[in-house]
Amino acid sequence: GNSVTQMEGPVTLSEEAFLTINCTYTATGYPSLFWYVQYPGEGLQLLLKATKADDKGSNKGFEATYRKETTSFHLEKGSVQVSDSAVYFCARPWGTSYGKLTFGQGTILTVHP
Amino acid sequence: EPEVTQTPSHQVTQMGQEVILRCVPISNHLYFYWYRQILGQKVEFLVSFYNNEISEKSEIFDDQFSVERPDGSNFTLKIRSTKLEDSAMYFCASKVWVSQETQYFGPGTRLLVL
Fold first, then answer.
1. Can you say how many angstroms the Cα of residue A76 is from the centroid of all Cα atoms in its chain?
2. Do B100 and B40 touch, CB atoms closer than 8 A?
3. B33 sits in which H/E element
């Protein structure tokens, strides 16, 4: 089916560490892919997106490359900050043209000073 | 920058009561959505709405749920008789047109059913 899978379990890092959060998708065709972020007590914010294979989305130092060979869209940041502590969701549209989103399980990131 | 707004931010209700969650989508957007997130779980699609009618709904969206766009700006989700398992964060989202895939989310309403 059309789904999105994120790495299980929370991630805890020290400030300035390198971050990778894995996301893989199953789909027919090549959907757009998104990363949304949810800061504590807030709603979902679009962090970045990629609309076709080999595209790289980037924002606020985060990057993710749409790789069709591995059906992946892993989120990376070279040097995390305490303010990056949040829940990160990988997502893709599916179904009819009305474009409902399906989300991964979410990954809790905690960054310590 | 325009944004989606939702009210109230928190709502506590007794089981069996009706609740109405309100959303104001971005003004030039045409497609509207409700999602929910039960605590600790993933965000789930509930319903999409276009041209004043439901375009798609999930199996979660049963007869207890309804949506309405009562005027040119508001988009509401009504739960007719709340159940304990309706406790969740409810997100409204909107997008401009069919070929634009990016949805913009509101801050959410946290509903607690006692």
1. 9
2. no
3. strand B31-37
Reported as a single tens digit per residue, the pLDDT across B17-29 is 999 999 999 998 9
If you average pLDDT over residues A66-91, what whole number do you get? 95
pLDDT at A98 > cutoff 70: no
The candidate with the shortest Cα–Cα distance to A33, out of A94, A113, A95, is A94
Instruction: Please give, rounded to a whole number of angstroms, the shortest distance from the CA of A39 to a CA of chain B.
Output: 10
Question: Chain B: nearest CA to A104, how far in angstroms?
Answer: 7
Cβ contact A43–B91 (<8 Å): yes
Could you tell me if B79 and B63 are in contact, meaning their C-beta atoms sit under 8 angstroms apart? no
Mutate to test the interface with B, among A8, A35, A59, A101 (most CBs of B within 10 A): A101
